[in-house]
Design brief:
The structure holds two protein chains of two kinds.
Chain A: H1 4-37, H2 54-60, H3 63-95, H4 101-109, H5 116-127, H6 133-140, H7 157-166, H8 170-180, H9 185-193, H10 198-226, H11 230-235, H12 247-256, H13 260-286
Chain B: H1 2-27, E1 32-37, H2 47-60, E2 65-70, H3 75-87, E3 94-97, E4 136-137, E5 140-141, E6 143-150, E7 153-156, H4 157-163, H5 172-184, E8 188-190, H6 200-214, H7 222-225, H8 230-245, H9 256-264, E9 268-272, H10 278-284, H11 286-291, E10 292-295, E11 305-316, H12 322-335, H13 338-348, E12 351-352, H14 364-375, E13 378-380, H15 389-403, H16 409-417
Parallel strand pairs in B: 1-2, 1-3, 8-9, 11-13
Antiparallel strand pairs in B: 3-11, 4-5, 6-11, 6-12, 7-9, 7-10
The chains are: A mainly alpha, B alpha/beta.
């Protein structure tokens, strides 16, 4: 005779079954497929043979792939530190409702609803060495020595692509702003009475209370940085000479070559580095959160 | 209870109607549907003619065969999509396919329709002499050459006249002399690019250089010889000189829009592209069109070398159903008749692998291209034909470094060879 506890377990399994089935179908199976085929020599429509870790060894011996990995880390740090930093600063300013704050909020958010492809093409035109607005501006103000082939020189290409993306803070800004306006004004009034200036209020009240949302936004920014593809592919195709290469563009190149196993090996590396980096950063930032 | 009975009755009635309809359909002769996935759609210059041919084919086969065009004019994107479908074991019924040596591995599988036996009849006579060999691998012809890439050198004679250049350069010495004079006149001697998926224009310059130095057979043992044959380094040295001295400063990182843009804007004396670009020059830059003369690549060791590749082949999914296979063959035969090829070629300016009577074509530049093809003393397939897509991209990456003087021509060759 079934006990009540056994009966509950059966019902739990029955109710979980659809979710487990869907999760397995759309998450476990594809990842298993990616990891499994990355250990083969699958390319074109030719059958596959097991080759162990050969694809992985090849990539880590490839200087261009190591550059791509490094660039992804630069992207992740740039977005996680600078973009979130700027978004936080702007959210704190707008939360104090300066004159025209709603206009600023809209203006900063607007690029988030514009296609990334369109923005990338716009920046490509801005950076054009011959006809671009940036060089024209530098020439006009007498700084023609600073004019560059921004996307064509190995020294300037990566910073140029990152800068073209980093100032689009609107998406993160509205998330942080929503959390910031939820902080009780009484904290600030009490701090003012105690003589705290604006900087001290933001430093000792706002930032600690925003910590949970900052962890979330930093995690999102890191994830974006580690899987970055779109702007780089559209603006430089990973060039010149791999200076802006990312794991995403590297993967896409292998897909184009119908080298499916190699592409899946890169996909696996992206999954692993992403998982490690995000869990590491969350663990680091979450430390002592309960105490505070 | 009555309501429940009514619902059951309705469901039973519906199912009976569905099954009755289904059996009626199977009884009648079923129309064969063929999906033709192509990048000759939208703004592509062949789109109109191809759509007309498909419409005409459908009109001639009402109730028997229906061809539907699917695709996008973004050839690179669509090629990726088709590759993915092939990898998934489900290629489209009929599709455009950019052949490369690496891609021919697909012939070894069982996914592509094999035309070898079909081409033993009179169908093979539709194609230009010897061209089917370019689509044959391991004795099998599983795709049909269609759109050809003959790419002569385009010269803007207005710039040449202004620079004091009397005739098109025939040797490299004359070419460098032209470059110096054009540069002194304030123009860019050549249009180049390292960007895009294959650094197209510069890849063609490099192909010509390899062919003119090493001869028509230079690519015959490509994988074995590319890393070691000094011809490829010599060709790279000349290309590097063009980059360092004779091109625009945004060539590194520039794409086809940049290289082509300089020619369309009348700022570049020499440019390379295929005849499909004639229509664009005619429409967007009539003055440049009037000033353009097509020429041979300057002779280094081998004269009148011409780049000739099959740009797009027609391929089809292998069919188990004999009726559908026959329908696909019928459609492909329709596309490759001389009369229909002429319609496509004349409306787009393209050069096709299908033979037809080209007389009566009033496009001056198209006629010049045909003269050059007929006067060529050797053909080379373009460089990118011999490599997979990742190596095509590597060409542009390494060229960016070499063009900026960061690596030597020998290092350029070595960097590309590292992907073998």
């Amino acid at each position: 005779m079934k006990t009540k506890k056994q009966s509950n377990v059966i019902w739990i399994l029955i109710f979980l079954a659809p979710a487990i089935a869907l999760f397995s179908l759309f998450f476990i199976y594809p990842i298993g497929m990616v990891v499994g085929t990355s250990l083969t020599d699958w390319r074109n429509s030719v059958g596959m043979n097991f080759i162990g870790l050969e694809n992985y060894i090849k990539f880590f011996q490839n200087a261009n792939f190591r550059t791509a990995l490094g660039n992804n880390i630069i992207w992740a740090l740039s977005l996680g530190i600078f973009q979130i930093g700027m978004a936080t600063a702007m959210a704190c300013i707008l939360a104090r409702r300066p004159k025209g704050w709603t206009v600023y909020r809209t203006v900063y958010f607007l690029p988030s609803v514009i296609s990334g492809a369109a923005l990338s093409m716009m920046w490509k035109a801005i950076y054009n060495a011959q006809h671009g607005v940036l060089n024209a501006f530098l020439n006009t103000i007498g700084l023609s020595d600073l004019a560059h082939n921004w996307l064509g020189e190995m020294e300037t290409a990566l910073p140029a692509v990152i800068i073209s993306q980093i100032f689009y803070i609107g998406y993160f800004m509205v998330i942080i702003l929503a959390s910031r306006v939820g902080i009780d004004d009484n904290y600030y009034e009490a701090a003012m009475i105690d003589g705290a200036n604006v900087w001290q209020q933001e430093r000792f009240i706002t930032l600690p209370l925003l910590k949970p949302i900052l962890i979330t936004t930093v995690t999102l920014a890191l994830a974006y940085g580690l899987r970055h593809f779109e702007a780089t592919y559209l603006m430089t195709t990973g060039g010149p000479n791999h200076a802006t290469e990312t794991m995403g563009t590297f993967l896409y190149t292998k897909l184009k070559a119908s080298k499916w196993a190699e592409a899946n090996a890169i996909g696996t590396i992206i999954i692993i580095t992403g998982g490690l980096a995000i869990s590491g950063i969350r663990s680091l930032l979450s430390r002592n959160m309960d105490v505070e | 209870m009555k309501k429940l009975a009514l619902v059951f009755a309705l469901v039973a009635l519906t199912m009976a109607m569905v099954f009755a309809g289904g059996s009626a359909e199977t009884a009648a002769e079923k129309e064969i549907e063929i999906k033709f996935v192509t990048w000759w759609v939208g703004a592509d210059t062949k789109a109109g003619a191809i759509q007309e041919l498909v419409d005409e084919f459908n009109a001639n086969h009402v109730g028997k065969i229906k061809v539907t065009i699917e695709g996008t004019a973004d050839a690179d994107g669509l090629a990726n999509s088709i590759s993915t479908q092939i990898a998934a074991g489900n290629p489209p019924d009929v599709f455009c396919w950019g052949p490369t040596v690496a891609g021919f591995e697909n012939y070894d599988g069982n996914l592509f329709m094999d035309f070898t036996e079909d081409l033993k009849g009179e169908w093979s006579e539709c194609f230009a002499d010897g061209i089917l060999d370019q689509a044959t691998y391991h004795g099998m012809t599983k795709s049909l050459p269609y759109d050809m890439a003959y790419t002569p050198i385009w010269y803007n004679t207005n710039i040449l006249k202004e620079a004091g250049v009397e005739k098109l350069p025939e040797t490299m010495d004359e070419f460098w002399d032209m470059c110096d004079k054009v540069k002194a006149a304030g123009y860019y001697p050549t249009a180049q690019m390292t960007g895009g998926n294959n650094a197209w224009t510069s890849m063609l310059w490099y192909t010509f250089l390899c062919g003119s130095i090493g001869g028509p057979a230079i690519f015959d043992n490509f994988e074995q010889e590319f890393p070691t044959n000094p011809v490829f380094v010599q060709a790279a040295e000349i290309l590097q000189r063009m980059y360092l001295e004779y091109t625009h400063n945004d060539a590194i990182g520039g794409d086809a829009g940049v290289a082509g843009g300089y020619y369309l804007a009348g700022k570049t004396a020499a440019f390379i592209n295929g005849p499909w670009y004639i229509g664009r020059v005619k429409n967007e830059a009539p003055e440049v069109f009037e000033a353009t003369e097509m020429g041979f690549f300057p002779t280094i060791n081998n004269e009148k070398i011409m780049v000739c590749s099959t740009l797009t082949n027609l391929a089809a999914a292998n069919q188990k159903d004999p009726a559908k296979r026959a329908a696909v063959i019928e459609f492909l035969k329709w596309l490759t008749t001389a009369e229909n090829a002429k319609k496509v070629a004349e409306s787009s300016g393209a050069v096709l692998a299908v033979k037809f009577d080209a007389s009566g074509n009033d496009n001056r530049l198209t006629a010049q291209v045909n003269d050059i093809i007929n006067g060529s003393k050797g053909f080379v397939n373009y460089w990118q034909f011999y490599v997979a897509a990742d190596m095509q991209l590597e060409f542009g990456q390494a060229l960016a470094a070499m063009g900026a003087g960061k690596i030597t021509p020998a290092e350029f060759v070595a960097q590309i060879s590292s992907l073998f």
